[in-house]
Amino acid sequence: MPVTALPEFPTNIPTHPLLIVDYELLKNGDETEMDKLWKAATSLGFWYLKNHGANEDVEKMFDMGAETMNLPMEEKMKYEDEGFSFGYKFAGASAVDASGEPDKAEYLNIAKDDVLAWPKQARRSYPYTVNNRMESTIIPFVTKSIEVNNVLLAIFNSKLGLPEGTLCKLHFGEYSGCEARTIKAPKNLPVGKQAIGAHTDFGSLSFLHNRLGGLQVLPPGVEEWQYVKPVPGHAICNVGDALAMLSGGILRSNIHRVVPPPGAQAAFERWSQVFFTRPVNSVMLRPLSDESSLISEAVRKLSDEQREALTPRVTAYDWVSRRKKLRMIKNRAGPETWMASGGTELGRA
Ligand SMILES: O=C(O)CCC(=O)C(=O)O
Ligand SMILES: [Fe+2]
């Protein structure tokens, strides 16, 4: 489906405005732009990123996603995600709420470790539609996404007053949950259904590309979900739980969800491409108070409950595994399973 054939996001629906950050300016060390990024990451935790240079790679990812999701179900299920995160997740495998309502989105997660090891296999195998496009599409998209998220991480490292390279070291040199995700939600979903239930992202940074509306955030202090409007060529970036924890809550991992696209857009399939940067598996998730007075000061001001929420005493691997596992309907015992699947949202979900 050419992008131009898709209906516009309706003009009569309120949206949550995000700050627009220019990646080229960030890369050139522009102070004003870095301040804008900091403001976005410490308030809502979401921002648009323009001039990121990944648009052509993203277009190819949309093609790869369509080729993959169009495979017969039997073929996709050969690559089912059996635990951690990598592989195929069929629509309806995860709950969207405590009642156990099934999700409506299917997706395929491709481990960064497999992409960087190609043509060797590091973590698992994938459908031929992925293998065939590894060199032309997936390696370029993942390489570019890593580069972008590294620039963002280095800025956060400096603004948090951490010794140079601290955050970078926590994200490289070992296997991790970093992954590229291609997502499809069907067209004509009834209003009120959720393609993806409310969640905070599990890792550190997400680099998201979508074309239709449907992504919503619940901003702090607000009771109503608000749409984030897709803007052509602009990525939607956000902070996840791991970075919220490492920063002692200074960086915000905000809750979000995916509902049917609004207005005339609802009649179209909804596709997204994401790259998730996550700490390496063995990293203990906790505020880096020993390494930054800014972080230790922020942690000192938290309530006991907030401090506990940011200090789960588990590794990055266990954090992703638990959240993923407890959202799966096959592991659901009752509403308590959903309640136990939460992240750093401090009861907001
Ligand atoms: O598809 C989208 O717009 C958002 C997807 C998302 O939140 C996720 O995969 O974590
Ligand atoms: Fe998300």
For the largest beta sheet, what order do the strands appear in spatially? 1-2-10-7-12-5-4-3
Give the averaged pLDDT, no decimals.
95
> What's the order of the H and E elements?
EHHEHHEEHHHHEEEEEEHEEHHHH
Number of domains: 1
Under the CATH scheme, which architecture would be assigned? Sandwich
Structural class: alpha+beta
Helix proportion range:
25-40%
Q: What would CATH call the class?
A: Mainly Beta
Overall strand count:
12
N/C terminus separation:
34 Å
Strand content: 15-25%
CATH homologous superfamily annotation: B-lactam Antibiotic, Isopenicillin N Synthase, Chain
GO molecular function: metal ion binding; oxidoreductase activity
Pfam family, one: DIOX_N
Family: Belongs to the iron/ascorbate-dependent oxidoreductase family.
Protein name: Fe2OG dioxygenase domain-containing protein
Describe the protein's architecture and organization:
- By secondary structure, this protein is an alpha+beta fold.
- It is built from 13 helices and 12 strands.
- It has one domain (20-348): Jelly Rolls (Sandwich).
- Helices cover 33% and strands 16% of the residues.
- An 8-stranded mixed β-sheet has the order 1-2-10-7-12-5-4-3. Strands 6-11-8-9 form a 4-stranded antiparallel β-sheet, with no helix packed on it.
- Helix 3 crosses helix 7 (134-159).
- The longest helix has 26 residues, at 134-159.
- The chain is globular, with a radius of gyration of 19 Å.
- Fe (ii) ion binds at residues 199, 201, 256.
- GO terms for molecular function: metal ion binding; oxidoreductase activity.
- Residues 174-279 form the Fe2OG dioxygenase domain.
